[in-house]
Amino acid sequence: MQLSRSRALFERAQRVIPGGVNSPVRAFGSVGGTPPFIAQAQGAYIEDVDGNRYIDYVGSWGPMLFGHADPDVVRAIQEAAARSPSFGAPTELEVRVAELICELVPSIEMVRLVNSGTEATMSAVRLARAYTGRPKIIKFEGHYHGHADFFLIAAGSGALTYGQPNSPGVTPGTAQDTLLARFNDLQHVEQLVEANAGEVAAIILEPVAGNMGCVPPEPGFLEGLRALCDRHGILLIFDEVMTGFRVARGGAQERYGVLPDLTTLGKVIGGGLPVGAYGGRREIMEYVAPKGPVYQAGTLSGNPLAMAAGYAVLRKIADTPDLYERLERFGAALEEGVRENLKGLGLDLYFTRVGAMATLFFTSERVVDYETARRCDTRRFARYFHAMLEEGIYLPPSQFEAFFFSTAHGERELEQTLSAQRRALARVFA
Ligand code: PLP
Fold first, then answer.
1. CA–CA separation, 330 vs 71, rounded Å?
2. Does one domain contain both 269 and 312?
3. Structurally, how many domains does the chain consist of?
4. Catalytic: 316?
5. What is the CA(415)–ligand 1 centre distance, in A?
6. Which of 28, 149, 206, 315 is most deeply buried (CB count within 10 A of its CB)?
7. Which residues get modified to N6-(pyridoxal phosphate)lysine (predicted)?
8. Which residues, at least 6 apart from 371, have a Cβ–Cβ distance to it below 8 Å?
9. ipTM computed for the complex
């Protein structure tokens, strides 16, 4: 595969940007090699500066539910840009986006728009602390909620990939207010709550974990957390930055029928532009400034370009009745094909999928938490990743990331992906 232009750009980038990238996982640290620098993308395909074309299963890490350069989204952005990219004043589009989010996500009655998933989770925790008057939060090992200090404790995604779960720069004082629990282990969470009685403001989690690979909740786990929170006056926060509008129209809370007190969103709701949101019960959200005392603000919050893209996406989500059935059909066919490939090659690897997110774990063991995820053969995954890239399939460059597909992925992409995978797996396990 020809990557000379990407290689040259990566060298230039490393001189002026730490590690050559603006977000760690993009640097291919855990799989090695040169990351392709991207020139353009359309539908299910992404193309690098050397002219290599790939079927894309990263989707900008989640936002591209309708594929790249969706004409409705592009048009909305162009029209908004012509009216000026930003005003720093209220707009009708913000109201429409907020109304649609409240309509589509079961537990959200009021919502505040911000610029990233990190801002959303950070603000939701501040709000939970203010509302309950308690200092501590419980998070789960291997879950990623962005890069606010108090989340960088046994975090997933890049932090897990790079094996530095406790980032330098996070003070012990901050770290002591973050309690760590094992995902899918209700008893462990109960013990933590009891040992910190009256001190826990919130339990925050990815209801389907995506940042240690795709790890679904065990039956009863989310319900158990809901009941525990109710018993102890703790707020339950679902971080649906990844799962929102991806595992179901109303996110994981709709899919599993468990309603959190607060929800954080990002990725899909920006259609590829920087947007995040946190929302929930009215009485809690009314604590947020200027209605209430909890400060949170943003020069570019509710930015008109981002709102135009977000509204275009949310409108399509609301107006496409069979959207999730279509994604489910593709997902089920892909899953069946992957299982056939594994069986045909006599391989016992663990595959998970929830809606339009999935992971092939390089282990035969059931992956249910951080410990079991970490036991994967990451070196063999790296070889598989490169074999797939050479076959023209662009996967997330880490075992600890879910891969995503969109409505632009169809029959042709399915067949190409599965035959590429058959050859790649055969090579890697030869
Ligand atoms: N929460 C989850 C579940 C995420 O997957 C991410 C990003 O991948 C974030 C929060 C942080 O979002 P952002 O990268 O937009 O700050």
1. 22
2. yes
3. 2
4. no
5. 31
6. 206
7. 267
8. 141, 182
9. 0.99
